[in-house]
């Protein structure tokens, strides 16, 4: 038995993998990875895989990046962790200062969590608690978009809307107000993204008008609903939403966990709408894909509403054991250094243009409904019947055929249902993009053949 197989057997006898029907592994291998280098993941038998999904959207500067490695190693020799209540440390202070500097002006406070879902919970709790502290306890509901995704804990599933993850747990969830998404895949033929996004805002306007007195916040994934199949919309929606939230006295939560740090073509997606949310949630690429950490950034106004004598019980008494972990902060500081050392956003513009060119012909494929792109995310929607826009039945799992084909051809492409997408680390080269494009093309051919 080969080394890969040995590790796979040991894995399957003790692990339970995330987001996986474990029975699938009776016929699909678990791929043990021995080491990573740049965009490549290497297994134990000399095979390699181009990480086109940035290991679940976290990695931006490549695996085992020498610079990030060194900063984490240096930190390791000084301080691995310390309680963040009552105590502090250099990396978390420096990181917070830098985050405040690079995000829109009203965001002045950093509250840390140790994963994206927890970070969203922080924002939801803080928003509700703000209204409680300011004498509006009736504001306790949330408005969310259809097809949105905000994590896997019960509260984040509640404000999410991807049936695959949510439906089973519905009896456990809180009730929210769900407004149709501005998703531009659904636009009328001939309509621009901007026109469609603008038109769809009417639903949001109405929901706010009718419910604002009991609504604490609106939560959105700016520009791309990633887990919802890389569905995209125009920044004008965010602009209209900011104005409406101000008019109706409702908080705006931006979940930039997946899109923050350059993914959409600007450092943060909110920049493209020239607005600032009341809560900005960041995670994933925050540490360059190295360590689990998240930050919920908010304003002085929010902070002040909690600042009082202890006995008033206005404090935000939320915590996680690993809040502000120094190793994770060191990885985040190194990641920010890399953004400063080169113009990553400009370099990404060139790579994004290359991704666009490399996949320009896909739209002519009889089973491709759309190729869409926002910055460093490019998605190809496979479809059963192009003329009638009939999707493939989900039970057919067409995407898995693309996944399996890619594995045989040095690529890790992990479609979301029938949506094949590239969301690679920013250190990918044009040649590697060409390789991904040809593997994806062949994979789509195979997956849609019958
Ligand atoms: C991944 C993700 C989350 C959840 O983050 P976890 O660290 O996986 O809990 C929340 N929102 C968005 C938009 C995400 O992509």
From TrEMBL:
Gene3D superfamilies: Aspartate Aminotransferase, domain 1, Type I PLP-dependent aspartate aminotransferase-like (Major domain). Pyridoxal 5'-phosphate binds at residues 116-117, 255, 320-321. It is an enzyme of class 2 (transferase). GO terms for cellular component: cytoplasm. Its EC number is 2.6.1.62. Keywords: Aminotransferase, Biotin biosynthesis, Cytoplasm, Pyridoxal phosphate, S-adenosyl-L-methionine, Transferase. This is Adenosylmethionine-8-amino-7-oxononanoate aminotransferase.
């Amino acid at each position: 038995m080969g080394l890969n197989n040995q590790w796979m057997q040991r894995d399957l006898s003790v692990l339970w993998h995330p987001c996986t029907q474990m029975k699938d592994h009776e016929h699909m291998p678990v791929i043990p990875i021995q080491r990573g280098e740049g965009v490549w993941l290497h297994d134990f038998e000399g095979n390699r895989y181009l990480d086109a999904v940035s290991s679940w959207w976290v990695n931006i500067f490549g695996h085992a990046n020498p610079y990030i490695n060194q900063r984490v190693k240096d930190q390791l020799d000084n301080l691995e962790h310390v309680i963040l209540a009552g105590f502090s440390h250099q990396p978390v202070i420096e990181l917070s200062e830098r985050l405040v500097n690079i995000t829109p002006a009203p965001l002045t406070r950093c509250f840390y969590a140790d994963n994206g879902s927890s970070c969203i919970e922080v924002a939801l709790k803080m928003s509700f608690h703000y209204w409680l502290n300011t004498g509006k306890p009736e504001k306790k509901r949330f408005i969310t978009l259809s097809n949105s995704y905000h994590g896997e804990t019960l509260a984040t599933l509640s404000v999410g809307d991807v049936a695959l993850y949510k439906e089973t747990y519905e009896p456990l969830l809180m009730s929210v107000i769900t407004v149709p998404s501005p998703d531009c895949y659904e636009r009328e033929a001939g309509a621009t993204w901007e026109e469609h996004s603008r038109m769809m805002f009417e639903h949001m306007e109405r929901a706010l008008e009718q419910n604002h007195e009991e609504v604490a916040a609106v939560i959105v994934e700016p520009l791309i609903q990633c887990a919802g199949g890389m569905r995209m919309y125009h920044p004008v929606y965010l602009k209209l939403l900011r104005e409406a939230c101000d008019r109706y006295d409702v908080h705006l939560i931006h979940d930039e966990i997946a899109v923050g740090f350059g993914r959409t073509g600007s450092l943060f997606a909110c920049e493209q709408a020239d607005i600032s949310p009341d809560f900005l949630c960041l995670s994933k690429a925050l540490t360059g894909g190295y360590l689990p950490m998240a930050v919920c950034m908010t304003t002085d106004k929010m902070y002040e509403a909690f600042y009082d004598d202890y006995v008033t019980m206005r404090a935000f008494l939320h915590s996680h054991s690993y809040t502000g972990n120094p190793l994770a902060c060191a990885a985040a500081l190194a990641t920010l250094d890399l953004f400063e050392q080169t113009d990553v956003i400009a370099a990404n513009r060139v790579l994004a243009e290359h991704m666009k060119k490399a996949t320009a012909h896909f739209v002519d494929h009889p089973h491709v409904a759309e190729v869409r792109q926002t910055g460093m995310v490019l998605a190809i929607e496979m479809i059963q019947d192009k003329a009638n826009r009939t999707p493939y039945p989900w039970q057919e799992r067409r995407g898995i055929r693309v996944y399996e084909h890619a594995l045989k051809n040095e690529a890790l492409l992990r479609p979301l249902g029938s949506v094949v997408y590239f969301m690679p680390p920013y250190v990918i080269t044009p040649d590697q993009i060409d390789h991904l494009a040809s593997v994806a093309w062949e994979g789509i051919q195979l997956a849609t053949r019958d």
